[in-house]
Amino acid sequence: MKSIALNLSKLWHHQLPQHKNWHPYIFTGMRLSLGIAWLVIVAAEMLTGGIGIGFWIWDEYNNLAYHNIIIGIVVVGLVGFILDVFMGKIADYFDYRKKM
Fold first, then answer.
1. Neighbours of 46 (CB within 10 A)
2. 23 with 94: CB under 8 angstroms?
3. 40 in a domain, yes or no?
4. pTM summary value
5. How far apart are CA 93 and CA 96, in angstroms?
């Protein structure tokens, strides 16, 4: 465990300062992975059942309540949009190009 911490410390203090422009790329990857994670969570809820917005959409589909399905899709889209905007604001805070 100590060797992992030592290697991460070496990476953080010696390798990353040489690449001063790495922040935007890290946060772009995090933004993309957040979107994919949200998609996978909703899809997993549809498959496994139980609780969650994905299960609710699937249950409404089985009940033929299409107006509720549209509401669920809009909610999923709004939550995804809010997460993307939030992550974008964090990325802009660390982006060196926006501070010039």
1. 17
2. yes
3. yes
4. 0.72
5. 8
